[in-house]
Predict the 3D structure of the following.
Amino acid sequence: MKIKHLFIALAALLIIAAPSQARKPKAPAEVSLSKEVLKDKIKGAWAGQIIGCSYGGPTEFKYATTIDQKIDIPWPEHGIKRWYDRFPGLYDDVYMDLTFVEVFAKEGLDAPVESFAKAFANAPYPLWHANRQARYNILAGIMPPESGHWLNNPHADDIDFQIEADYAGIMAPGMVNAAAHYCDEIGHMMNYGDGWYGGVYVAAMYALAFVSDDIDFIVNEALKVIPEGTRYHTAMSDVIRWHKQYPEDWHICWALVNKEHAFDIGCPGGVYSAFNIDAVLNSAYILIGLLYGEKNYYRTLDISTRCGADSDCNPASAGGILGTVLGFEGIPEYWRKPIYEVLDRDLVYTDISVNKATEMSFDQALQVIQRNGGTVTDDKVTLPCQKPEPVRFEQSFPGHWPQEKKDIKRYVDKAGELSWEGIGVVYNFSWQKPKDYQEHGYEAEVECYLDGKLDKTVRIPSGGNNLANELYFHYNLPKGKHTVSFKLLNPEEGVRLIIGSQLTYSDELILTRHEDK
């Protein structure tokens, strides 16, 4: 009798478990789509970025906390055209991508990284953070991947490649490993570690958005391309876990993300500051939007935006990924309507429109499909859905902890010897110029001495596109006391180069211990 009861109990458990297992999505071996559907999804990817960027544009970096629901974010009928007309630089998320799309179009899928570096470094658009330092490095002869490495780029963990990696997922539908492959050399031009992982993860989500409409599956499956044990993987896993624990209120997830993952150690402007352009934090905001948005286009954009920080780039990524899932025709008309006015209008700094980008990416996707074992016929494609393989493990600033950030506020040529203690240091700078100063290509040439010996000579342009982020930085030094001094070789009358702050690093987290009183 006991054995009979045991069998009944086991059978009941199997019946209960079966529906749960059946609901668990699995990666298909392959997916067939009409060419029309594939192109529509590609168009949804590009248009989704424009829509998301436009929605979040008015709030960009105005909020270090969440944006309250009582703060109105409008969606005017001609809003996208207005951005194109008045501030087209908002769309750096898109025109940066198009630099890489264009090189692939001209030189093929095997274009050397030098071609991408040359196109990127000599492009007419201004750059910031990791991109700016990468351009500066490349033009100074520091080529990829060294141009993005944390030893040569204080912004290695910043968001830059994360907002530019869309192209890789769009050209590799269903193929997460191929998407990661096309992220490798290009992503290391400007980023490393978590900064690179941000782009790889976004590209992987795009790739999966072509073959699944299950957001939970997309975000979990894409995360398999990021090595476990990295700060980035841990943070994204936490977001996914907290979403399951607190599915009704994204603010709780946001608060936990900021409690556990908002401490920035790299970007000098973000260390000890409410400003945060770190890839980990902003990737988490993309993920919060996708998970809590539940495939609702408005909620996805709105939540990604209201998380704050880089609140135009994050809804651009979330909007592009969901736009891929839905396809252009599946994006609600309310959100699509303003983009009709610019579909054939070139993005600033390019001769490529959304419609042209769609054609270029479609052509590249057909090539990637065939290269990876898929098939292309007159009217249909079969996508080989790849099992995710983790990319290599790398981490920026290992063993480096911000120790102290203090103002210097001295002219470079009058600074004298600056002493500090630790294993790394960064100095930022500013210019003092007469009101009537005419830019004419002046570059301050500065010798930087570390512990009394010439360490490097830097050229700091006073204007133009090849701007430097920092005056001087050096990491991974022997722990101890150090000195830095500067010698300005070519002063310009009336123009002064000013050392702003000194940021130092230790090999341990040093905190003051206060006793209870």
Notes: The radius of gyration is 25 Å. The chain has two domains: 30-384, 401-506. The chain has 17 helices and eleven strands. Residues 1-22 have pLDDT under 50 and may be disordered.
